[in-house]
Amino acid sequence: MTCKRILVLFGGCSSEHEVSLVSASAVIANLDASRYEAIPVGITKEGRWLRYTGPVEAISTGEWCKNTAWCTPCAVALDRGANLLMLCGGLPRSEHYDAVFPVLHGRNGEDGTVQGLFELAGAPLIGCGTLSSALCMDKDRAHRLAALAGVEVPKSFAFGRDAAFDEILKRAGELGWPLFVKPVRAGSSFGVSRVKEPLALPDAVREAFQYDSEILLEEAVPGFEVGCAVLGSQTLITGAVDEIELSQGFFDYTEKYTLKTSAIHCPARIPEETAGHIQEAARKIYRALGCRDFARVDMFLTPEGRIVFNEVNTIPGFTSHSRYPSMMKAAGIGFSELLTRMIELEVPQQ
């Protein structure tokens, strides 16, 4: 059996650059070597695309781009041939790949921009496409579509940079305190603030606008966050539901990657029937937003048992201990097998 060549794209011009490096390193290390050959391509923080040939472990540490012997400048050929163009000694040469697996988080990678590039090039793309990636990154529009599909969403108001602060303050009062201020399009809780009183609102608004041109004021939903991994396009498989236990604050960037004062329980400590309702809501949201191949759907479970949509991560964390692989592992699908299933959705073995 001939190995399929999978272009694994990592890094990116994003505040989540470092998270992508860790995820991509784990993906490359856990690919089934009897089926797949990884073609690592890194994007530096400055936006340079580099074909990487060095050790896998240097990716997660950020050392990968510091050794020029490991990196060759490259670009994606747009002639619908699934090729990379590389400049070696000033002369171009091409390298074919069978599919691209973007392991990018946040802006300029998880938001449909990269997906559009590879769809334009006619390359098989592992993961959500251009439209669904863009929709899922946009919290306001994702909530509107989920609501149309019959899923409960938080009360919220969206504002652009030209909005008068008096109007923002007025809408905040309608939502009540505490509330959340979020960039409409950002990941890993960057720019998100939990605001307890009106005096703290101006700083929270300024912080959110640092990450996007639109912000969202959103009610604080009581209860706790639950998540559900979804795998597939036509037939959907859901992983075990997980639960985030917080001792203080909210699940911000620090907590997501250090768990200093929080814990993740997988499976969640909830009745089996409730878990089933959450999995059904995840499938409904996944389909409403046009997702394919894989995504993690995050929701809130209130004390009364209401399931409220939060967001969809179209490229969730992919370390062996990340939430998505952990949910699938609890459902009986190990990390290496999970990667194989994802790839085979777009590149079936012959």
From TrEMBL:
EC assignment: 6.3.2.4
InterPro entries (alphabetical): ATP-grasp, ATP_grasp_subdomain_1, D-Ala_lig_Van_CS, D_ala_D_ala, Dala_Dala_lig_C, Dala_Dala_lig_N, PreATP-grasp_dom_sf
Gene: vanG
Organism placement in taxonomy: Bacteria, Bacillati, Bacillota, Clostridia, Eubacteriales
GO molecular function terms attached to this record: D-alanine-D-serine ligase activity
SUPFAM superfamilies per the UniProt record, alphabetical: Glutathione synthetase ATP-binding domain-like, PreATP-grasp domain
Top EC class for this record: ligase
Cofactor: Mg(2+); Mn(2+)
Taxonomic source organism: Gemmiger gallinarum
Protein's name according to its UniProt entry: D-alanine--D-alanine ligase
The protein's role, per its UniProt record: Cell wall formation.
Database matches in NCBIfam families: D_ala_D_alaTIGR (TIGR01205), D_ala_D_ser_VanG (NF000091), PRK01966.1-4 (NF002528)
Family: Belongs to the D-alanine--D-alanine ligase family.
Compartment(s): Cytoplasm
Keywords, comma-separated and alphabetical: ATP-binding, Cell shape, Cell wall biogenesis/degradation, Cytoplasm, Ligase, Magnesium, Manganese, Metal-binding, Nucleotide-binding, Peptidoglycan synthesis
Entry coiled-coil feature ranges: none
